[in-house]
Amino acid sequence: MSQVDKVFAGDVVALRGFDLAVDQGDFISLLGPSGCGKSTALRLIAGLIRQTSGSLHWEGGQHDGDLGIVFQEPTLMPWARVKDNVWLPLRLRGKSYRACRNEIEQALELVGLQDFKNAFPRELSGGMKMRVSIARAMVTRPRLILMDEPFAALDEITRQRMNCDLLAMRESIGCTVIFVTHSVFESVYLSDRIVVMAARPGRVIQELNVKVDGPRTAEFRTSDEFAALSRHASEALQQAMT
Amino acid sequence: MNNMNVTTATLAAVDSEEEALARSRKLMSIARWTLPSLVMLFALGAWQAYVVIAQVPHYVLPSPWLIAKTVVSDWAVLWPAMLVTGRLTVLALILAVVGGVSLAVAFTQSRWIEMSLFPYAVILQVTPVVAIAPLLQIYMDSAFSAALLCAWIVAFFPILSNTTIGLKSPDHNLQDLFTIYKASGWQRLRLLSAPSALPYFLGGLKIAGGLALIGAVVAEFVIGRAGTGLGLASTLLEASYRFNFGRLYGALVLISVMGIVMFGLMSLISYLALYRWHESALK
Q1: Which terminus in chain A has less CB density within 10 A, N or C?
Q2: Domain A1-66+143-242, architecture per CATH
Q3: Residue B163 above 60 pLDDT?
Q4: How close is the nearest chain A Cα to the Cα of B181, in Å?
Q5: Which of A184, A183, A180, A76 is nearest to A126 (CA)?
């Protein structure tokens, strides 16, 4: 999948000359201060809004709902049990619960919540709700998953665990991820490529390749390599804010 | 060593505090039932004593004991009347639910329908039903259907307005999610809007249950006067003409009982539908 976006939205210019090429299997972070159009870019890709001008290309035509999305809030249906929340995307495609029981259980296993499938969202912690949300995004095995600051509301320790688990989950289903964040460390830890954006108007100012040899483990988080990459990204972000 | 002692002492103190808390909670739960019951007993006793000591004639103020006796002795009159009022109330409520929910769904499906019809729903609501009832009597064939229409008008609005708000209130991100997965309008209504609206609808139902009874009583007052012999309220009115104050108060008590049962029933329905997931049902 390769795509080029070029977008101008609304009276307020949320994005100007936004270019982004995404290859299949990439993990891309959009990093930038608030108001730089990260979320707008994501909503455009999701097809929730339309570009003023410019175009989006998908290899092989339309995405046809072949994507998953995770919002800043878990955004679960409070009246539905965990398994029914995960069932939702398949249900909307007209699949009965019985027909996709395996997919649902696999998705829950992926996020480590197989024992909570009958729980209601209010019985879960913030981190667990987010896991359900991720399971729901992955249950259709989409080629692309969009994440809009999914861990911003979690505490630092939970967030680090989620980051670590997210990489493992992605490994096992092999999807492309576009990940919006305002955390430098998160973007460095997770991505293959960091797209640094600036505000007013929203635009891309720098792209950083994060080439790392070896697995991204807890050791990576404390390594010199990680520190150097983080410094690099921080500098780029600094530049974006001036 | 000294340190140890302090720790244990503190622990014990905390425990006794917890104990006191648990005890007061238990006391509270008992008091919640016994206190109102005691007040009721005291009030009834004072009433009875006043009537007996001051020798108040029963056509001015009957004693609670006389009222209780009348309810038993006039049961053959009161029970059928209660059935009529009960049927009127329940039927009006059911029709209000059907009408209110369908119109609310129509409102949320089309802004044009809402713009066209909502003002008339408001007019229907703000015009006092007492003023409409005599008219309905002229145009409707049977007194029962006129009274039913009356009760329906009163009960209908809270369901309509609450359900409309509820249907419009689903979480924005969830709506986006449904858009991304290309949900149909029907799927959106059934899986997203309807469950989101449920707590609002049930709130409206609680109000409408009480209002349906009030509407039924008002309708009977106004329409029952034609001597059609409707339910409890017309029995009450008739008893007042005959200075049968025992029966009048008996009917009044039964109307209150119906109101309480109605409220209890609606609260139970609401609890059963929401207790597993909604914040309002959290202990």
Answers
A1: C
A2: 3-Layer(aba) Sandwich (3.40)
A3: yes
A4: 5
A5: A76
